[in-house]
Amino acid sequence: MTDDSAVPNRTTLTADLRRLGVGPGDALFIHSALSALGLPRGPESDPDRSLAELLGALCDAVGSEGLVAVPTFSNTYKAKADGPAGLVWNPKTTPSRVGSFTNYVLRSPGAARSDHPTHSVAAVGTGAAEFCAGHSWREDATPFDRRGPWGRLAERGGKILWLGTDMRTQTAAHVVEDWMALPYMPTAIAMVDDGGRTREIPVPRAPAGPRDFYKQNSKVERAWNASGRGRRGLVGRAECQLMGADEFIDWLWAELLREPALLLSDDPADAWSAEARAATAAHLRNFRGDWRRAGHGNRRCTQMNFDKGI
To answer: What tens digit of pLDDT does each residue of 69-80 get?
Structure first.
């Protein structure tokens, strides 16, 4: 949308998404900052109006054969030292801790949700239930398990959309940490509702600890911007980026093999990060892994070579 005086709506948002590169049949994973879009607040009689406008636009942009997915992470760790804590996981009732839009998607007709207690994913659209499968604590799934939604997003040539956000929200960075089994990803404990009985269950490869990419203008954000990848543009009034999921995963995988500490702090006073840097360098020194292996096929990378700019 180029007219600063115009108020975004479902129609203009759909046009902006299409202009950015979202197309029919896309599997689209969203990180959103709703306030950046410039959508008006709904009246008391319809407080979810702006959320409905956004979801409607996303669904219109991907079409009847497409899919829209969001993170629906939860406060279900046993201890705050591991991450957000205090709730007992139930996929039908536990709210998302990552924004009003993600909770709106959860409440939408036909929405599916993966059964991971700390890092679930929700989706609407064609094949939503299948997309969210394979990501359950009952199957010992890790937060970003290769068998679950993130693996399907990458294999399907899906896309990641930052709606007014930046690298600080990029869950795919944790995906690469998980798939490379980086040594600073500990096993945490989460609380789950197992048929009415509260249980403590292990969460392997939990994304605990600080990261440099949680900060604005991080090392990895600067490297990504310098690579010229992805496509940038306006959706509503928000500055956005669109990228291929496999494009980003391939890029970060290669960058970590070149610079193992790319996601970590270089602060010499940070003992956790110093230990993590040393362990990661040792882990990756003779690393030969590839996320396309292990029977999942050698899929073609859908790198998005678009003209850059708004």
So the answer is: 999 999 999 988
